[in-house]
## 1
Amino acid sequence: IGFKINIEQLAKSFNYNNTFQANSIKELNDKMPLFKKAQGPVLMEIIVSKESRYDLGRPTTTPIDNKEQFMSFIQK
């Protein structure tokens, strides 16, 4: 269901000033400077694949670790 929701339209209905979307690491890296400079509130939608790799192992980091790594990434 989440892949059918228009996140940009939803964010605008909540008065977000800017929204961005990234479908790849390259797009995320390209749009991050714009995201950081945008006047808030601002939203970055990151599109992910519904599938997983056949050789995908179990997570080695916690959700909190993931959040902190992501927050560190966007502050650079």
Note: The first strand starts at residue 18 and ends at 22.
## 2
Amino acid sequence: MALLDNGLKYGAVTRAFHWGMAVLMAWQFLGMIIKITVGRAPISAFFVGTHKSVGVILLALIVVRALWGLYNLKVRPSHGAGFWGMASVAGHLVLYGLMLVVPSLALLRQYGSGKPLDVFGVRLIEGGWAEIMWMTAPANAVHGILGWVLLAAIMGHIVMALVHQFVWKDGTLKRMTH
């Protein structure tokens, strides 16, 4: 099993980033859906209690994943030519952009709140200062909305993977699973 990407398929490292982040994203969105549906309950508290920690892990992973993708850029499988190739590149750029912006805004808000941030019990931000409004306002305004936009983009990504697999039958999904 190759670690690096090549022109035919994605390597083990890229696949580990992709599927590991998919699981963490599913956890994040499931928690928010449960919170909205059930309200304050032990099950929603269980998921929401990890939301910030998982978000920080996702932010770190997306930065490393993006750097890994740039490192492998010349040897990655092609997205194809023409309209669908450009649409694929644009869709992936939107996904990467949202995966970077959504948790970055939340981290900026957390820092600006003056409250401490613990990630799975490890203190990352000490806190203890007054709220800094210019840091908290952007995330207060759009973190949630952009999070749902990210979910819509992820759903579009999944739909297109299924189109590739079952309609176009071009082996695209196989590149990320084998």
Note: The two ends are 9 Å apart (CA to CA).
